[in-house]
Specification:
- The complex is a heterotrimer.
- Chain B is α/β, with parallel strands linked by helices.
- Chain B is 39% helix and 17% strand.
- In chain B, the strands form two sheets. In chain B, strands 4, 5, 6, 7, 8, 9, 10 and 11 form an eight-stranded mixed β-sheet that branches. In chain B, strands 2-1-3 form a three-stranded parallel β-sheet.
- The radius of gyration of chain B is 22 Å and the shape is globular.
- The termini of chain B are far apart.
- Chain C is mainly alpha-helical.
- Classes of the chains: A mainly alpha, B alpha/beta, C mainly alpha.
- Chains in contact: A-B, A-C, B-C.
- Chains A and B meet through helix 3, helix 5, helix 8, helix 10 and helix 11 of A and helix 1, strand 1, strand 2, helix 3 and helix 8 of B.
Chain lengths: 262, 350, 295
């Protein structure tokens, strides 16, 4: 991509705003990280530094399994929903046709229906068609409600792209697959990345639907955390959240440096 | 751009890699369905060591969620932990397997009040786990005169000094019950006039409340964010660990007394092992570990000698004998009564 | 290789369409049926007794002598949720737009990393994040005590349980859903266009209005949908940060499947919600017909 003179200097005040913005974004996370090292039983009053909660987490198979389930479900749901959403967005671009409106309505449905209703309806439906509840049913449900989150940014990206660009591409390359790989995909990339990220965080956070469609052994981290209502949120949750945060940050850093070197 | 995308996708595949190497052990397992942190992981490990049977834990957040899920037909859970009224509902709905708990070897340890409970008089379907009561806690260092009357009056019609310093549980059932006890009316009433009286009481109390909230009650009191909190006694016990001046009140008009129980759904795959586990949990030494972990008392004789000293010494958990007469077991109300309660709650928060 | 181009497009759309049709629309038909049934005694429904009661209950109340009286309780809960969702969407847009613009101005290499940095905090569970906000916002919390320590204020700030606290929490929760789609649209901005505009002595506001905002429009529409619709059903953050003194659509419906044991009413409420949103969208579609909107 051509990046000519960057006009950022004209918007220097944006830089200041950005500092405030990232502070807003990360202050709660920092609070959480600090408290994960608190020796205290409760999440509020600082007493002394300790690794106790990390030890507790690593010795608690239930919370570890829940975190693992969450990551598996989110990874699979993200990849699947992003692939399907990308295909659909490409199919929807260009000249209008009748079924388009129907699809627009359909894709909005998972967003529109309140979670608890989707949850109970899906549970009844899965049982009615004889699917056994487990991690698979959780993944199916997640793929479905992640599709709009992946689809809308990709669609927004396509919007306003010159359709002639895509048509010219298919003239240029003999096979449509080549046209897609060389032209359409690179053009859509920012939309696809955005969509995938939104799908991932949506999946990681879902409690209600997951709870209802999960079978034995398919408890995810949000379900585990909401189950603590009776006994109070334990600082273990801070510790496991910090571990997840550290893992993701580490991965981002490493990939950043690798890509810088090349 | 492409490389960074690859890296970004890599993040997503990382967890999938982490999953490799994770495989179910071939050992016998039972699936326990419970609240989170309501049974110590170490106790389950101990059970596995002693019997070779692994206990997998899945969790839910309320009796109602548990019922909705099982009613819809979810299967695969071997042991569940419904509260008293839910045991009765599930029995009536035909969800529970008859396990004849009263004939199990460790049932001899059960305290008298829990041998023939109203929700399962023959103990055919359930065995006792933890019990608790719902009252309220206040910080004696911050109330006028350092002491409040042990009545729901202190909660519903508090002194002016506590305005905006009180949090109620965000639970229609608990609020409705507490108001009914205070007004001396039936908790299962279908009388619209009584509903109006309860609504009036709750509306009068509302400006004195900082919030309705069932989460984080312990932290909120310990941080001194509020002075009074509608609370379960086990939570009150944990509150006291840091806030020594906290006092748990057993209101003289009566209070909700709930019992959580082990039960086995009809759809359980491993019923024999489930019953063995339930029996094991009725031994004083085992259940005491759970009580020390949860901060709630249990129904097993002789378990208190394994209690932590702090648990034994706390009147919020080890209820003084003269106060147990204030306990009111949960009743099972008609749909009409629930509709009335729902209407009052919606009107209160419209 | 002449073939019907539409066929290929149908093939592309079909996986997503079929998935949503089978696992979303069909279960919803089950729910539609349920909303016309009588509630079971302990939740669930009685499968053979039909009644419009659930829909009647939304607007009318039966008084003691079983006469229907108009009841605005549920309508006022609906309108509150709509207002909250609307304000949240506007505020999120206001915060997200400059952020997306800033990211789009970066070199391509830096953009993806900035996007990642924006989403990483959201790997942490919603409940946990909200708890962190409570620690910050409450009296004696971090904001309160640091303002006191600096001598800026000398009475409690009383932020907790206010609409401000609720909005901080909601804007925080929905930020990535607005930033990312807007960035996606803005990313294709050709900066030479901006430079050309400045060369022609356009001021910053004019360039914004004429070049940047039109380009960002599809992303803004997508972002608004991704924020507004989920915000309608949200109740967790308003409850925790706002004190739960009022109900939202979300917990009203949730309650029907829980303590209220009235599944048909819960289903009916969600169809009422669906209807209201569809009416909104229809009005929107009619007003902006042919202006390149998403729907």
């Amino acid at each position: 991509m051509i990046n000519p003179r960057n006009p950022l200097w004209r918007y220097w005040s944006l830089g200041v705003l950005m500092v405030v913005f990232f502070a807003f974004l990360y202050v709660p996370i920092i609070v959480l990280i600090v408290l994960s090292f608190n020796q205290n039983q409760t999440a509020t009053i600082w007493t002394a530094f300790s690794f106790d909660w990390y030890k507790t987490v690593l010795e608690n198979p239930n919370i570890l399994r829940a975190a693992q389930n969450s990551l598996i479900v989110a990874a699979v749901a993200t990849v699947a929903s992003t692939v399907f959403a990308t295909m659909a967005a490409v199919g929807m671009a260009g000249k209008t046709f009748k079924a388009q409106n129907a699809f627009n309505g359909l894709v909005g449905l998972p967003l529109l229906v309140p979670e608890i209703v989707t949850a109970v309806a899906s549970l009844l439906f899965f049982l009615a068609i004889g699917l056994e509840l487990g991690l698979t049913t959780v993944i199916i449900a997640h793929v479905v409600f992640c599709i709009p989150f992946a689809y809308l940014p990709i669609r927004a990206r396509l919007e306003g792209l010159d359709p002639k660009l895509l048509e010219a591409a298919s003239d240029l390359y003999a096979r449509p697959w080549q046209a897609f790989a060389r032209v359409t995909l690179p053009l859509l990339l920012p939309g696809i990345v955005s969509g995938a990220m939104l799908a991932f965080i949506t999946s990681m956070d879902d409690f209600v639907i997951t709870f209802f469609v999960a079978g034995a052994g398919a408890t995810t981290l949000p379900v585990y955390i909401f189950g603590m209502i009776r006994t109070g949120i334990s600082p273990e949750v801070n510790a496991i959240s910090t571990l997840l945060f550290a893992a993701s940050l580490l991965f981002v850093m490493v990939s950043f440096f690798i890509s810088q070197k090349k | 751009m492409n490389k960074s995308l690859l890296a970004a996708l890599g993040i997503l595949t990382l967890p999938a890699l982490a999953a490799i190497g994770y495989a179910q052990s071939p050992k016998a397992t039972i699936n326990l369905y419970n609240w989170s942190n309501y049974i110590p992981p170490d106790l389950l490990k101990k059970y596995e060591k002693e019997t070779g049977v692994r206990v997998n834990l899945d969790v839910y957040d309320s009796n109602e969620s548990l019922l909705a899920k099982l009613k819809a037909g979810a299967t695969g859970y071997d042991v569940i932990v419904p509260s008293d009224y839910m045991v009765k509902i599930m029995t009536d709905e035909g969800i529970l397997e008859k396990i004849s708990a009263s004939k199990l070897s460790n049932f001899k340890n059960v305290q008298s009040f829990s041998i023939k409970p109203p929700f399962d008089a023959t103990r055919d379907y359930s065995a006792p786990y933890m019990w608790g009561v719902t009252g309220f806690t206040y910080d004696s260092a911050r109330v006028p005169g350092g002491k409040l009357e042990d009545s729901w009056k202190s909660f519903f019609e508090p002194p002016e000094a506590l305005k905006g310093q009180i949090v109620a549980l965000n639970d229609p059932l608990e609020m409705w019950n507490a108001a009914s006890f205070y007004l001396g009316t039936d908790t299962c009433t279908t009388d619209a006039k009584v509903g109006e009286k309860i609504l009036a009481l709750l509306e009068k109390q509302k400006p004195y409340l900082a919030a309705y909230n069932s989460d984080g009650t312990i932290e909120r009191m310990q941080a001194g964010e509020v002075i009074m909190h509608h609370q379960w006694n086990g939570a009150a016990h944990r509150t006291k660990e840091k806030l020594k001046t906290a006092v748990f009140v057993y209101p003289k008009e009566g209070m909700s007394f709930w019992n959580d129980n082990f039960a086995v759904p009809k759809t359980a795959k491993n019923k024999a092992e489930a019953v063995k586990f339930i029996n094991w949990m009725m031994s004083p030494a085992a259940i005491a570990v759970a009580s020390n972990f949860t901060g709630y008392n249990n129904s097993i004789k002789g378990s208190s000698k394994f209690f932590d000293a702090s648990l034994n010494a706390d009147p919020a958990v080890n209820t003084p004998a003269n106060l147990t007469s204030r306990f009111r077991p949960n009743k099972i109300c008609s749909n009409a009564s629930i509709a009335l309660r729902d209407k009052v709650w919606t009107r209160l928060k419209r | 290789m002449k073939r019907d181009p539409l066929l290929g497009r149908y093939a592309l759309i079909s996986p997503a369409a079929i998935l949503i049709f089978v696992f979303m629309l069909l279960p919803m038909l089950l729910m539609a049926l349920m909303s016309w049934l009588e509630p079971g005694q302990f939740g669930g429904v009685k499968w053979s007794s039909y009644t419009p009661e659930a829909y009647v209950k939304f607007l009318f109340d039966r008084d003691l002598s079983d006469v229907l009286v108009f009841n605005t309780d549920y309508l006022s809960i609906f309108s509150r949720s709509f207002q909250l969702a609307l304000v949240t969407t506007l505020l999120t847009l206001l915060v997200a737009f400059p952020v997306a613009f800033y990211i789009a101005l970066q070199t391509p290499k830096h953009r993806t990393w900035l996007m990642l940095l924006i989403t990483i905090p959201f790997w942490t569970n919603l409940l946990v994040r909200t708890y962190a906000w409570i620690l910050l916002l409450r009296n004696g919390g971090l904001i309160d005590s640091s303002l006191h320590g600096l001598g800026i204020v000398n009475s409690p700030i009383n932020l907790m349980y206010t609409p401000i606290a609720v909005q901080i929490g909601l804007v925080y929760a929905f930020l990535p859903f607005m930033v990312l789609p807007i960035y996606t649209s803005l990313e294709k901005l050709d900066w030479r266009l901006l430079e050309a505009a400045y060369d022609l002595y356009a001021n910053r506001w004019q360039t914004m209005r004429r070049i940047v905002i039109p380009l960002a429009a599809p992303g803004m529409v997508a972002g608004c949908i991704l924020v507004f619709v989920p915000a309608l059903g949200t109740f967790f953050i308003p409850e925790l940060l706002g004190g739960a003194k009022t109900l939202m659509i979300g917990n009203l419906i949730q309650q029907q499947f829980g303590v209220s044991r009235n599944w048909p009413f819960g289903a009916a409420l969600s169809f009422a919600l669906l209807a209201v949103v569809l009416i909104f969208m229809l009005i929107y579609a009619l007003r902006f017909r042919g202006k390149g909107s998403l729907t």
